[in-house]
Every structure is written in C-alpha cells, then in structure tokens.
Amino acid sequence: MSHTLPPPAVAQPVETSDAATPPAELSLEDRLMLIDAAMTVRLDEAKVAYEVNSAHIPTEPVDLADLVTISTAPATHRLPDLYPTPVAALLQRAHHRLVTGGWCKDALVAPDGARCVLGAIRAEAHGDRGLENSAVTILMDAIRRKFGDDVDSVPGFNDAFASGSTPIRMVDQAAGLADARGL
To answer: Which residues contact 143 (CB under 8 A, 6 or more apart)?
Structure first.
C-alpha cells in the first residue's frame, strides 16, 4: 500500500467588494512631524544604548577649557597692558609668568624655574606680603566660585591638577575679578 500525501493547499486571495482606498497624501508639515517623532524615538533608543554600553567605564567630567593645550616651548608672549588696580595687575603678572615661565606642582619653584600658582604670585609681589595676601584671597574667591567651598588652599588647588591649564586659567579669572572689585 502506498501512502501519498495530498497536494498542499494554496491559499486563494479573498476578494472584497470594497476597493482599497489609496492613502491620503500628507502635507509637508505632517511628514516633517512624523519624521521628527521617529528621529526622537531613535535618538532616545541610542541614548539608552550608549548609557547601557558605557556604564561599566569609569569616567570623570572633562572641562572643555582643559582641552586647550599650552605649548611648553619658551614663549615669546608680550605682557599685555596691566590692569590699573594693584591686586589685578599682580595677578595678571603672575598669570603671564606662569604662561611664559612654566607651571609646576608640589613645589613653589621647580628646578627648571617653573612655578606653582602661589610661587608666581609671591615672585610678582616682590616681597609685599599685604599685596600677596590680597591676591591669594581674590584667587581663592575665584576658585570657590567655580569649584565650591571644598578647596581649602591655593597650594592644595594647584597640586590637585596634572597639568597647569586650569590653575593658570583661574589666575587669569582672578585678575578680572580683582579688577571688577577695584582691587
């Protein structure tokens, strides 16, 4: 006895009495709105995927100003016109000294002549302790405005960085702050 399988059944299309109506054409605004909604969904999905895929990577926030590099080659910068107020002018000279002479950490003066922020202020104060103290006070105000009250000293702030870009930038900002205060 031979068993044969019946031929497979083929689905026949069902005819309907209603003719398919073509979709209404969308206006440009409607199409843009739909594309915007679709892109928003895709961007949200990409954001979640990025967060999930990078959650295991330890990261620290990056200050974009740190991405600006300062050449370590001897600079031939001309000292700009000084602020008219003594503390602001001192901070501006200290900033110039750091940019041209180099920045260091963990010492007032490095063997190559580079200075930390406090070392530059002290050198430019030329022994005037009152002027030096006023400059350090203004610098601490500028630092605390940007980094909060957790910063306890200028040397501690200076030594917390691997490069001098942020400490040097803060000296420049402190000079502007001192000038604005008329100091």
So the answer is: 151, 154, 157, 170, 174
